[in-house]
Amino acid sequence: MRAQFVLSEIGVGLRRNLTMTFAVIVSVALSLALFGGSLLMSDQVNTMKGYWYDKVNVSVFLCNKSDAESDPNCAKGAVTDDQKKQIKTDLDKMGVVEKVAYESQDAAYKHYKEQFGDSPLASSLTPDQMQESYRIKLKDPQKYQVIATAFDGRDGVQSVQDQKGILDNLFGLLNGMNWAARAVMALMLVVALMLIVNTVRVSAFSRRRETGIMRLVGASGFYIQAPFIMEAAVAGLIGGTLACGFLLVARYFIIDHGLALSEKLNLINFIGWDAVLTKLPLILATSLLMPAVAAFFALRKYLKV
C-alpha cells in the first residue's frame, strides 16, 4: 500500500465532508473532555477522602445537668467523675484508638463562641450547658462502629457522634455530580459515534464509483477501507487533542489561576498536575481507536460492490 495514496485520500475525504468532520471533532472533543473530567473528579473525591478521613474524630459526649432533665439517654443523671475515668480507661485500652483528648465544658463553650458567636443562641448559652466530651482519633476511620457499640447507651454518655457521617454526605453529593457528568459523557459519546458512522457512510457513498473500480481491479478490502478509517481516526485524534487542551486549561484556570481555588479553599487538598497528565494518553488513545473501530464496522456494508 502506498502511503502517499492513503494520505491524499484522507485529505480529500476530510475536505469533502468538512462540516460533518467539524461536527465529529467537536463532539469527540466535548465527550472526551467530559470523560477526562469525570476521571479527574473521581481522583479529586478520593484525594479529599484520604485527606479528610484521616482527620476525622469520633466524639463521645457526656451527660450534663441539663441533659439529665431532658434527654432519655441521661435519665440516670449527669456523668460522674468515676464514670469519666472509667470511660477514659476503656478508650485507652481499645486497639482502634490512636489518641484521646478531653474537652471540658469551658473549652466547648469557647469553641462554640468562636464558631457561632454571631448566632442569637450564643448569647443565651452558659458554659454549664455545654457538654464535656472525649475527642477520639481512630487508627482507621472506618472503625467508628466499634466505639459506638462500646459506648452508646452507657451511663454518663449522651451520644457518640462520628464526623465521618457529615463528610459522607458531602462526598455522596460529589459522587452524584460525578455520575451525572458520566451520563452526559456517555450521551456525547453516542452522538460522536453516530456522527462518525454517518460521516464515513457519506464519504463512502460519494466515492462509491472509485471504490467499485478498485474492487474490480483486485484491490483488497483493507486497502479500500484504510483511507476512510484513517479519516475518522484523524478527526477523532484532533478532537482528543482539543479535549486534552480543555483539561489542561481548566486545571490551570480553575485551581491555580483565574478562580484560584487552591488559594481560596486552603482546606481542600486539590489534585496535582500529575493526575491530569496521566489521563492524557488514555484520552488520546480513545480518540484514535474509537472512531477507527466505528468506521471499520460502518464500512463493512457500505463498501461492498
Automatic annotation (TrEMBL):
<keyword id="KW-0812">Transmembrane</keyword>
<dbReference type="Pfam" id="PF18075">
    <property type="entry name" value="FtsX_ECD"/>
</dbReference>
<keyword id="KW-1003">Cell membrane</keyword>
<dbReference type="InterPro" id="IPR004513">
    <property type="entry name" value="FtsX"/>
</dbReference>
<keyword id="KW-1133">Transmembrane helix</keyword>
<keyword id="KW-0131">Cell cycle</keyword>
<dbReference type="InterPro" id="IPR003838">
    <property type="entry name" value="ABC3_permease_C"/>
</dbReference>
<comment type="function">
    <text>Part of the ABC transporter FtsEX involved in cellular division.</text>
</comment>
<dbReference type="InterPro" id="IPR040690">
    <property type="entry name" value="FtsX_ECD"/>
</dbReference>
<feature type="transmembrane region" description="Helical">
    <location>
        <begin position="179"/>
        <end position="200"/>
    </location>
</feature>
<comment type="similarity">
    <text>Belongs to the ABC-4 integral membrane protein family. FtsX subfamily.</text>
</comment>
<keyword id="KW-0472">Membrane</keyword>
<feature type="domain" description="FtsX extracellular">
    <location>
        <begin position="56"/>
        <end position="160"/>
    </location>
</feature>
<feature type="domain" description="ABC3 transporter permease C-terminal">
    <location>
        <begin position="183"/>
        <end position="301"/>
    </location>
</feature>
<feature type="transmembrane region" description="Helical">
    <location>
        <begin position="21"/>
        <end position="41"/>
    </location>
</feature>
<feature type="transmembrane region" description="Helical">
    <location>
        <begin position="280"/>
        <end position="299"/>
    </location>
</feature>
<dbReference type="Pfam" id="PF02687">
    <property type="entry name" value="FtsX"/>
</dbReference>
<keyword id="KW-0132">Cell division</keyword>
<feature type="transmembrane region" description="Helical">
    <location>
        <begin position="221"/>
        <end position="254"/>
    </location>
</feature>
<protein>
    <recommendedName>
        <fullName>Cell division protein FtsX</fullName>
    </recommendedName>
</protein>
<dbReference type="InterPro" id="IPR047929">
    <property type="entry name" value="FtsX_actino"/>
</dbReference>
<comment type="subunit">
    <text>Forms a membrane-associated complex with FtsE.</text>
</comment>
